[in-house]
Amino acid sequence: MKTEKNYIDRTHTFGSVWSLAVLLVLIAVPLSFCINYNVWPTLKEIGSGLLPVAVLFYPTAIIEVIAYSPLLGAGGMYLSFTTGNISNLKLPCALAAMDTAKVKSNSEEGEVITTIAVATSAIVTTIIIAVFVLAFRPFIPRLTDPSSILSPAFKQVMPALFGALGASYFSKHWKISVAPILILTVIVIISGGIGTGVLIPIGVVISLAGAFAMYKLKLI
Amino acid sequence: MMDFRENSFMLALGLTVVAFILAQSAAFLIRAVKRGNQIGLSKSVMKNTVIQSVLFTVTPALAIVATIIALTPALGIILPWIRLSVIGNITQETAAASAAVEAASNGAASLSVPITDEKTFATVMWVMTLASSLPLVILPLCLKRIQHGMNKAIGKSGDSKLTDTLAVAAFIGLIAAFIARALAGKGTGIQAADGTVTYNYDGAGLMSVATLVISVVIMLILSKTAEKRNIKWLQNFAMPISMFAAMGFAVLLSQILPEAIAHFEFRAPIIS
């Protein structure tokens, strides 16, 4: 138990150092550009572009940190929030890995498996993006163009991915699954344009409340 | 003179960022594998986790490449590449770039027109960077406390069955969000200046429901078969196989169905 605590604590220190280092590297990108070309946008120009986006995305970022925290563990969180594409890539990878390895998210085995899954996914994504951007750029539009034969596959990545992932969870825990799927579908019917970033925390809260109620009523 | 958006200076910036991200991911991976060995996780479990994650990642990663291409008319290829490799996601980056271009040009420019002014480009770079960087500040400050608080609450309950149930419920809530969108979400479309609308066919409709159902059915069949006949490799790879098979089915459906039916969506798309 003591070593587990030490490992998680060390992961927080390790992750914090890397997060701050990545932040510095990210800020260095526009800063280097400004120095190189000697162009300096005013704070007002940056602020007027940032404000409408920040109003929407800063609260979402805070909610995402809280909502994903129990699912991704410490290592998975630091790495996921650096490399991005969490809901469509890192989370499904982590969930599938834990399900296949039969480990629990709140165990140290779960912590190790989610970190391995997220790190692998981050490396593969970064390499694929870099290779395709640098080498295959002319071919990408042809692959994903609406007239391409493969276009429907790219449009349906999410249903295919979450269908496979969901089947495993829903078949084992169908009683818990019914309420969140039904309620979220109704929410989407009422508000069709609702973003997945908003829908996920709502889904997690509904599912937790439903599961807790069923557990207390001895229905599961 | 070479386009400043895609010259060797920008390329050097892009490669530096990517090298840094790869180094970070490799450091976390090596550290986790070492810890896995220490606590007795079998090598085959960790190896399968890596292989499954690679398979699960390939197609969504290609979809990300496609979204990078969508941002290139205004921003060139390097900036979207950097932004989508670190923290970014397509919704956020498109919104940030769009707001920044409009602010820097007083509404005179948009994302479909190349940026030719370095200062406007610098403004877009700053806005995209600052819009997405908040988690890198929140995590070092708060994550340890958040997770410590959650673990404390779980420990206090002293009921491991309840905590396991709640952990599963959290996953199901997340998956349900995507299922609900595939069942009932509105698609999107873009209206050009001349009024022509280009539909993305990304809303809930015949294709999304068929892909979802096929993916679920194949997964159930494969996992039951693997369990019944004790086929280890199939147990490990049933999920990626189901995902690729369902996507293949979507391609097949789009080829055999009349276009109007294949593109049928339950609700009118949101046009922007």
Task: Outline the structure in words.
Chain A has 220 residues and is mainly alpha-helical. Chain A has a domain at 173-220. Helices cover 84% and strands 0% of the residues of chain A. Chain A has 9 helices and no strands. In chain A, α2 crosses α4 (108-134) and α7 (157-172) packs antiparallel against α8 (174-190). Chain B is mainly alpha-helical and 272 residues long. Chain B folds into 2 domains: 1-132, no CATH class; 185-272, no CATH class. Chain B is built from 10 helices and 3 strands, in the order αααααααββαααβ. A 3-stranded mixed beta sheet of chain B has the order 2-1-3, with no helix packed on it. The two termini of chain B are 35 Å apart. Classes of the chains: A mainly alpha (220), B mainly alpha (272). Chains A and B meet through α1, α2, α3, α4 and α5 of A and α1, α2, α3, α4 and α5 of B.
Features:
heterodimer; A: 220 residues; mainly alpha; 84% helix; globular; B: 272 residues; three-stranded mixed sheet; 75% helix
